[in-house]
UniProtKB/TrEMBL annotation:
This is GAL3B protein. Gene3D superfamilies: 3.40.50.880. The gene is Gatd3b. It comes from the Eukaryota. SUPFAM superfamilies: Class I glutamine amidotransferase-like. CDD domains: GATase1_ES1 (cd03133). InterPro entries: Class_I_gatase-like. It comes from Molothrus ater.
Amino acid sequence: MAKRVAVVLAGCGVFDGSEIHEASAVLVHLSREGAQAEVYAPNIPQMHVVDHVKGQPTAEQRNVLVESARIARGNIKDLATLDVKGLDALIIPGGFGVAKNLSTWATQGKNCSVSKEVEAVLRAFHAAHKPIGLCCISPVLAAKIFPGCEVTVGHDTECEQWPYAKTAEAMKELGCRHINSQVTEAHVDARNLLVSTSAFMCNAPIHQVHDGIGSMVREVLRLA
């Protein structure tokens, strides 16, 4: 039987939704490993819509589920319908949508709140001892919900290669243990069944990001 993995998206586009290359890499690696991806997204308005050419917010309004359907080629379900019983694992790609639509990390950092639906899904997989894969910024969700967990967003010292390293410091303040790692690596928190990889938190070639996500997917499936 193929393992069934829920993939939760946060829109479509790095600055206001799911990072498209990360979401695609997750789906490609799941397919390569013979797993069945089931894509979900919350049926809510986006925090805002960003013009990805100008990098500036616009007056437009969009829906997270409708936008996520672009990545899923229309084969998507409302997150409210997710039933953990029929699924083997959960993966959440990164992108600013995680910090804007699935939580308020973008505006409140460590003092953020996580969407009730998203928190309920994370807690359900955790309680069922089913693995959770997180990449790029999405490990902040685990840091907020599961105090004492181990995750990685890459490195904790800011430099040209690691421009978002301050995220690691904020996560540590929440009581989580941050593990420094390379972009091609995934870190496994065996106690909490959390698997994380830095992805585009690192200023790295896209194939290395893709390889790191592959490492994360394989570890998730190994634990499932």
